[in-house]
Design brief:
197 residues; two-stranded antiparallel ribbon; 5 helices; globular
Length: 197
């Protein structure tokens, strides 16, 4: 009975503008409504298609993955292109999440905002979407710090101190910079090679 009701909710969600929940989103995937390799994320109850990953984006992800793992080794976890559950209607898939270490059953679940120290989005062709949709979404949910790495113009946009749904501290830095990783004492990453791209 429960699965029948959930299937009905999926049909209603796809045929109207009712917001889709995270549970319904997973049911849609299980029932084959998305291709197995579909790149989608759930934003405010809407399934949003993600842009393909180009060569420059891929190279930046590989570089930052190494930098972040080295910087926080043994003190925090780094998740690359995996979901973070913000609430019942939003489960984006940022390029990186730096989060607290968890043990036991909690370790298997996607992180929520209380687990997150930092979210990083790498923007090649998605800058407007990252700045206008995703950063405000993260602010509304209280993500403590967000970096948007803009590959085209070689800039790092930093968003800190979420208050009442927006970030109070917003900074943009060009070219090389060493940046502290929030939530992890003395951890820094040098982004100059990524930004010199």
């Amino acid at each position: 009975m429960r699965s029948k009701l959930r299937s009905q909710a999926i049909v209603e969600a796809s045929s109207s503008h009712r917001r889709i929940t995270v549970d319904e989103y997973y049911d849609m995937a299980r029932t084959g409504l998305f291709a197995p390799d579909a790149r989608v994320e759930l934003i405010e109850g809407e399934v949003v298609r993600m842009a393909p990953i180009g060569d420059r984006h891929c190279a930046a992800v590989e570089e930052l993955d190494e930098l972040l793992h080295r910087a926080v080794a043994g003190r925090a976890r780094v998740r690359c292109q995996m979901p973070v559950r913000l609430d019942d209607y939003s489960q984006p898939e940022p390029d990186f999440v730096v989060m607290r270490q968890r043990v036991g059953r909690d370790d298997r679940a996607h992180p929520s905002v209380v687990d997150v120290f930092l979210i990083v989005e790498i923007s090649d062709s998605t800058l407007r979407y990252d700045l206008d949709v995703k950063v405000p979404l993260y602010a509304r949910h209280g993500v403590p710090e967000v970096w948007v790495i803009e590959l085209l113009h070689r800039k790092l946009h930093l968003y800190r101190c979420p208050v009442a749904g927006s970030y109070e501290d917003v900074t943009s830095v060009s070219d090389g910079c060493t940046t502290a990783v929030p939530g992890v004492s003395s951890a820094t990453v040098d982004l100059s090679e990524i930004l010199s791209g």
